[in-house]
Write a structure and sequence with these properties.
With 257 residues, the chain is of the alpha+beta class. Helices cover 22% and strands 29% of the residues. It contains seven helices and 13 strands. The strands form two sheets. Strands 3-2-4-1-10-9-11 form a seven-stranded antiparallel β-sheet. A six-stranded antiparallel β-sheet has the order 5-6-7-8-12-13, covered by helices on one side. Pfam families: GATase_4 (PF13230).
């Protein structure tokens, strides 16, 4: 159910990160190598990136497969960035709100993606949804599980939680409400990355002090890729990557409203 990738490092064209590698995110849209659920990610795609001097990222999202968008090739060739988040989508339910349901979701400096599915959606998250301010529910970009999970994360971020804690608490409360859910979440603010491995694959590649890539699966055969254990929170900058077992992170307070 989806593949995604986040990058921090020297300025690169989008295409060098998303299209050119032998097993790039572009290729993973039809031929993922390590995806545990689903085989084709053709229900839309998106990329968000940061421009120098602007903390609010730009986004390009479509409801078509990434290989079916001829404009993306030009965009990927000329747009350069030092930080991005991109995803190709395999929808939990067909036809759910088109490109509005394609990651990355965004608010302020943040970009977010969800690789997975919430078991029993939407019934299982009804109680959690009731805790959100009505304006947040009415402002959901799409009527899908990923959009609501993002609203839960965003509520914690706006209440002042650190990115990693916001992801960890959200994963633990959603997993409790909907056992069996797959909750690989990915978040960046352009300066750091937070991610969870919960039910599907997650890998990272780092050159400390220079670049860090976090992805559902390696985009090449570089032997320095490292797999993140399941039930783990990853937090990263260009300088370091930290892994924390999610079982060691007790849920903190509920989001303030």
């Amino acid at each position: 159910m989806c593949r995604h990738l986040a990058y921090l490092g020297p300025e690169e064209p989008l295409g060098r990160l998303l299209v050119d590698p032998e097993h790039s995110l572009y290729r993973q849209s039809w031929e993922p190598r390590r995806q545990k659920h689903g085989t084709v990610n053709a229900d839309g795609f998106g990329v968000g990136w940061y421009a120098e001097g602007d903390p609010v990222p730009g986004r390009y999202r479509r409801a078509v497969p990434i290989w079916g968008d001829q404009s993306f090739a030009d965009l990927a060739r000329v747009v350069r960035t030092e930080a991005l988040l991109a995803a190709v989508r395999d929808a939990t339910f067909a036809g759910a709100d088109g490109e509005a349901a394609a990651a990355p979701f965004a608010a302020g400096p943040w970009l977010f993606s969800h690789n997975g599915a919430v078991t029993g959606w939407p019934r299982t998250l009804a109680a959690l949804a009731q805790r959100l301010p009505p304006v947040d529910l009415l402002s959901l970009e799409a009527r899908c599980d990923s959009a609501l999970v993002w609203a839960l994360v965003l509520g914690r971020l706006r209440a002042g939680d650190a990115e990693g804690q916001a992801l960890a608490d959200t994963v633990l409360e959603v997993a409790h409400a909907a056992p069996g859910s797959r909750l690989n979440l990915l978040l960046t603010n352009g300066e750091s990355i937070a991610a969870t491995a919960w039910g599907d694959t997650l890998w990272y590649l780092t050159e400390p002090g220079r670049r860090t890539v976090v992805a559902s699966e390696p985009y090449d055969d570089d032997p320095h890729w490292q797999e993140v254990p399941d039930r783990t929170l990853l937090t990263a900058t260009r300088a370091e990557v930290l892994l924390t077992p999610l079982k060691d992170l007790a849920p903190s307070k509920e989001p303030r409203t």
